[in-house]
Amino acid sequence: MTTEWSKSKRRGVLIDANQNGEGKTIASVYSVRPKEGAPVSTPLRWEEVDESLDPATFTMDVVRERIAEHGDLFEGVLKTRQSLAKALKALQ
């Protein structure tokens, strides 16, 4: 993970803490995206993330099937407390 804004300098997944504020508009989990085919913002397992991943395949029907088969992959985020302190320290 990184907080580096510049794409040319960035390595890893960007954590954009600037979006955590009143009036900010970000898509939450299971939000329909304003793109052709109406793909849905979908939590994934790390092993699903690779170069062949196509976010457009996650339509409402596909996401409903995923939840029925695998459960809500986001559920733990709502029930578990986590700290990014160790990861942030490693970036410094």
Structure, explained:
Helices cover about 25% and strands about 0% of the residues. It is built from three helices and no strands. The chain is globular and about 40 Å long.
Brief characterization of the structure:
The protein is mostly helical and 92 residues long. The protein has helices spanning 60-70, 75-79, 85-91.
- Succession of helices and strands: HHH
The rounded distance between the terminal residues' Cα atoms is: 12 Å
Q: Estimate the mean pLDDT confidence.
A: 87
Helix percent band: 25-40%
- Count of discrete alpha- or pi-helical segments spanning 4 or more residues: 3
- What is the strand tally? 0
* Percent of residues in β-strands: under 5%
Structural class: mainly alpha
Question: Looking at the structure, what is the overall shape?
Answer: globular
Regions with little confidence, pLDDT below 50 for 5+ residues: none
Radius of gyration: 15 Å
Largest sheet at a glance? none
Layout: helices, strands, pairs:
Elements: H1 60-70, H2 75-79, H3 85-91
List keywords for this structure.
mainly alpha; single chain; 92 residues; 0% strand
